[in-house]
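ZP: hey, is the pyridoxal-5'-phosphate complex queued? I don't see it on the tracker
AM: it wasn't, my bad. submitting now with these inputs:
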Amino acid sequence: MRYLSTRGQAEQKDFTGVLLAGLAADGGLYMPETWPRFSPAELRALRALPYAELAARVLAPFVGECIAFADLQAMCRRAYAGFAHKATVPLVQLDTNIYALELFHGPTLAFKDMALQLVGHLFEHVLAGRGEKIRIVGATSGDTGSAAIEAVANRQNIDITILHPHGKTSEVQRRQMTTVKADNVLNIAVDGNFDDCQDLVKAMFADAPFRAEMNLSAVNSINFARIAAQIPYYVYAALNLGAPEREVAVAVPTGNFGNILAAWAARQMGVPIARFIVASNRNDILARFLDANDMSVQGVAPSLSPSMDIQVSSNFERLLFEFLGRDAALTAQTMATFRASGKMAVADPVWRAITKDFKGYRRSDQETLAEIPRLHRESGYLADPHSVIGIAAARELGPVGMPVIAAATAHPAKFPDAIERAVGVRPPLPAHLADLYERHETYTRAPNDLAAIEACVRNFANRNV
Ligand SMILES: *Cc1c(COP(=O)(O)O)cnc(C)c1O
């Protein structure tokens, strides 16, 4: 399988090349040259498989010749072995045709683990084969940091350094990062805010000699390997609800558009998904686009569902590329105009083609706080502030008589304050994290100063020399 850039000016790569590169050199995003396709008989054959086995078979055509199938299978098994539910991604029925697909049984209680746990193993495997070592650096305001740390903790040939703003993350979020026992993990608490942390990471990448000396890398949310690793759970859920004989719809709490794009990829591969419902909070650029062809950038406002607080959804470029007939020059031009003007110009017929199957939905914080107890009353189900918007969207926009898969992207215990406001009780942490508050924390405190941070990273890199 070859991969090409949505902007057409970068060299094509194989799966390994895409995994290591993340973003294409022309600023575009990598896409498979063609979508692999499963026949109805091939899909039916996946139906009885445990999740990790199904995932290996769905991913095999994307990986191509780069990794032997037996190795891929072993990595899928290891990636999902630690999940806290035997089904890995259980489907929970909430109403006649509404099912929550629980994607939060991984180590950090959010759906990012679905892709990152596997990507950690993929990195380790590929780097060992090449005899290379990389250092991942990143900044976090909360959740992405812990998912990245859990993904590469104790992996060979990878170090990870995550900067967080000292005293400015929630205690659960900080402890999920600082209590991981692994000698390849360095947490730095920076005396500054999240923007300072992000600026320090950007400055490290911009410092060419340092970047080369440390072989810096990022765990990018636009890496196609992460998208690929999110396709299997849509295949799994649809098969369990009657596909390929029966059509299904999906409703997905959306930020960067990666998760819902994976559902669309599942359809390209032959899974009959008839509708894609994009759920947003007050940061509703996607809902405005789907309602009225208004993709215009406004500021980001904080909400109860912070992982959906986005200004621009980077993975939307991939869908745009497809609906522009894979015209890379036109995609590049559309993105350049969008960046310059803050408004994306999508021709009416293209917009109509997208909105035939994609529907937008939004809920304010106030509405979200009302939905949580309502769902709890009606179905006995406690959903976090992200998932509940997807479930409400499924109820309101799901086609009549069709099963709707509502992606449940975070465990309610990850957002105890919002849950307490909504239903009056704090959800307990699941068993595997129950002692989080007793675990020993390890982190280094550092000033908001590039030289000081680089010294920390360098000392850490040289710790065993
Ligand atoms: C990351 C995240 C999302 C958004 O997913 P995208 O793939 O960026 O659209 C939604 N909910 C939760 C809990 C997340 O962590």
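AM: back. The first strand starts at residue 3 and ends at 5.
ZP: great, adding it to the tracker
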